[in-house]
């Protein structure tokens, strides 16, 4: 599944490249207002921080929420205490768009993450042009040379890469390219199996000074608490927020010490 998602996202980017040539998207990226310092917003603190996701649909769960106004949802997240908003921009399975990201960018003053299947420089320039401060890099979708190159490109544009892992070997690969923000996704992106204990088994491999993000599979505040007690600085939540009352749910999750 991961390889088909990645191939589909690259195909869609190639179609957009026909409309907006590479040089133009690069020019827009370089002309965009500077990116926010996401690491400052996500730095370890006394309380857990939350990246709140705009998620309409997913391959594992199908349609989750209509979300006709992503900007309003993002504003709700910010008011309820989110430290960053994640926007799924993949269209085929997640029903997201880059326009969603632009709308969210204009609505909030906290960092915005482009969550997609990124393999191309073009997608990174698109992210910056749309106002993203962070870009997701999924280690399993990239070889080491691509990972190093994209991480460097993201940094050179003033953004931060959230480098996503799912095994000890992938954490090593993230460290090798100098990632400063490492996510452990509880979801196996090929089988969709969820393992809430995976973060705890990998957290010690991520040295102090690097921000640790536990991603996916949060249903209740007890799950946030579980990640926090296993060493998470930040927890990334999608489905539980968009399918419930986003403000109340987020406030409840942030109540975890
Ligand atoms: O969510 C999916 O089904 C999925 C399937 C394949 C690749 C990626 C997928 N999701 C992306 C994410 O990692 C999540 O949207 C994110 O971590 C939030 O997860 P959740 O809180 O469980 O909605």
From TrEMBL:
Recorded catalytic activity of this chain's protein: 1-(2-carboxyphenylamino)-1-deoxy-D-ribulose 5-phosphate + H(+) = (1S,2R)-1-C-(indol-3-yl)glycerol 3-phosphate + CO2 + H2O
Amino-acid biosynthesis recorded as keyword: yes
EC primary class: lyase
Protein family: Belongs to the TrpC family.
| Annotated Pfam families | IGPS
Q: Which CDD domains match?
A: IGPS
Q: What is the lineage of its organism?
A: Bacteria, Bacillati, Actinomycetota, Actinomycetes, Micrococcales
Q: Which NCBIfam families match?
A: PRK00278.1-1 (NF001369)
InterPro entries membership = Aldolase_TIM (IPR013785), Indole-3-glycerol_P_synth (IPR045186), Indole-3-glycerol_P_synth_dom (IPR013798), Indole-3-GlycerolPSynthase_CS (IPR001468), RibuloseP-bd_barrel (IPR011060)
Q: What protein does this entry describe?
A: indole-3-glycerol-phosphate synthase
Which pathway does this chain act in? Answer: Amino-acid biosynthesis; L-tryptophan biosynthesis; L-tryptophan from chorismate: step 4/5
Q: Return the PANTHER family for the record.
A: INDOLE-3-GLYCEROL-PHOSPHATE SYNTHASE, TRYPTOPHAN BIOSYNTHESIS PROTEIN
Question: Keyword annotations for this protein?
Answer: Amino-acid biosynthesis, Aromatic amino acid biosynthesis, Decarboxylase, Lyase, Tryptophan biosynthesis
Its Enzyme Commission number(s) read 4.1.1.48
Q: Which GO terms describe its biological process?
A: L-tryptophan biosynthetic process
């Amino acid at each position: 599944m991961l390889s088909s998602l990645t191939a589909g996202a690259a195909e869609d980017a190639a179609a957009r490249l026909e409309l907006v040539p590479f040089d133009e998207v690069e020019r827009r990226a370089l002309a965009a207002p500077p990116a926010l310092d996401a690491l400052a917003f996500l730095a370890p603190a006394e309380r857990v921080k939350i990246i709140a996701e705009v998620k309409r649909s997913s391959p594992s769960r199908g349609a989750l929420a209509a979300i006709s106004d992503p900007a309003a949802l993002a504003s709700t997240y910010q008011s309820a205490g989110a430290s960053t908003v994640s926007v799924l921009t993949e269209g085929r399975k997640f029903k997201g768009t880059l326009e969603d990201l632009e709308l969210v960018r204009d609505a909030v003053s906290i960092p915005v993450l482009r969550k997609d299947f990124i393999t191309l420089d073009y997608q990174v320039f698109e992210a910056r042009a749309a106002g993203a401060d962070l870009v997701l890099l999924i280690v399993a979708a990239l070889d080491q040379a691509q990972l190093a190159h994209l991480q460097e490109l993201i940094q050179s544009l003033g953004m931060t890469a959230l480098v996503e892992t799912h095994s000890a070997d992938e954490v090593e690969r993230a460290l090798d390219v100098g990632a400063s923000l490492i996510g452990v996704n509880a979801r196996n992106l090929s089988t969709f199996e969820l393992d809430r204990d995976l973060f705890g088994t990998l957290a010690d491999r991520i040295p102090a000074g690097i921000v640790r993000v536990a991603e996916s599979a949060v249903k209740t505040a007890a799950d946030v608490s579980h990640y926090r007690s296993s060493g998470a600085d930040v927890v990334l939540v999608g489905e539980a927020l968009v399918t419930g009352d986003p403000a109340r749910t987020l406030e409840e999750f942030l109540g975890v010490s």
